[in-house]
Backbone:
């Protein structure tokens, strides 16, 4: 087991990584939804067949809502949540992929990438950045850093600099709140959402 993985499937547990759009099994190294079935996986929600039907498919696989992939050694890696996936004009964008790239900027202490509602594309890419102390960046600096290095549609259209992320009582970042803040900050700064 590698430190960067969650390991292999338990004995008598069947794990598949499925494409969330097509439902087909993803090849090794390709991100998809982590799905599993076995004696140790729930059969459904107690007295709630509607909720059960939303997460367990006809073949008995529990759809976890987690994004992940299987590596060449048979280990699984969790990479994010499906509900955090940004769908811009039909293109799926992994927030983690964009975050990992933005962490390469020496001025960036922390970053969260979220979907920003867009009338033209359905969703667009927004980045909330916490800068290292004494460092400065502009929106244009961030976008220029991305050009020629990541796909054009993955470059954050909206860049916001904040001092802290909204957190839950248990210390988790509230991405839903960041999505709301993006719209509020665009309006307050006179930024047109397209």
Residues:
């Amino acid at each position: 087991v590698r430190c960067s993985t969650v390991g292999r499937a338990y004995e008598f547990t069947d794990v598949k990584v499925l494409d969330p759009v097509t439902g087909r099994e993803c090849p090794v190294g390709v991100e998809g939804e982590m799905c599993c079935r076995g004696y140790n996986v729930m059969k459904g929600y107690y007295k709630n067949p509607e909720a059960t039907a939303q997460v367990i498919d006809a073949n008995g696989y529990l759809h976890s809502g987690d994004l992940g992939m299987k590596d060449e050694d048979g280990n699984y890696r969790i990479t994010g949540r499906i509900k955090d996936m940004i769908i811009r004009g039909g293109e799926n964008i992994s927030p983690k992929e964009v975050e990992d790239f933005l962490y390469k900027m020496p001025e960036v202490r922390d970053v969260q990438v979220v979907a920003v509602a867009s009338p033209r594309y359905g969703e667009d890419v927004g980045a909330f950045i916490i800068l290292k102390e004494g460092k400065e960046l502009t929106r244009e600096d961030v976008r220029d850093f991305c050009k020629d290095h990541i796909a054009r549609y993955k470059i954050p259209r909206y860049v916001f600099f904040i001092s802290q992320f909204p957190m839950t009582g248990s210390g988790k970042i509230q991405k839903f709140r960041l999505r709301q803040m993006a719209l509020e900050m665009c309006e307050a700064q006179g930024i047109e959402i397209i």
Observations:
- The mean pLDDT is 93.
- The chain is about 20% helix and 30% strand.
